[in-house]
Amino acid sequence: MPTIHVTRRDGRQEAVEATSGQSLKDALKGAGIDEILGLCGGFASCGTCHVHVAEDWLARLEPVRENEAELLGYSDWREANSRLACQIPFTEALDGIVVTVAPED
């Protein structure tokens, strides 16, 4: 089964199994990564699923959409590799992706 490698806010690293066709947010939440809240239900309107994607994975992702970029602009923790996990469709091509949960705003 495809895997997501995630570093939690406290530094713990976990390998999470994911299903192709769900969002990265849903995969992380479903695996018990409780720092990923997704309060808006995945509509890119709350920012509670903010992650930092490892640099070598960024080119494999769909480009950041305007509403995602705008919302990330409000975060004190925005970096060049910031993404909202709800806006990343998980596919087999992302097997092994490495993300870190961003600090809470």
UniProtKB/TrEMBL annotation:
SUPFAM superfamilies: 2Fe-2S ferredoxin-like. The keyword Nucleotide-binding does not apply. The keyword Cell division does not apply. Residues 1-20 are annotated as: Disordered. It holds the Pfam family Fer2. It comes from the Bacteria. InterPro entries: 2Fe-2S_ferredoxin-like_sf, 2Fe-2S_ferredoxin-type, Adrenodoxin-like, Beta-grasp_dom_sf. Its cofactor is [2Fe-2S] cluster. Residues 2-105 form the 2Fe-2S ferredoxin-type domain. Keywords: 2Fe-2S, Iron, Iron-sulfur, Metal-binding. Coiled coil: none annotated. Belongs to the adrenodoxin/putidaredoxin family. This is 2Fe-2S iron-sulfur cluster-binding protein.
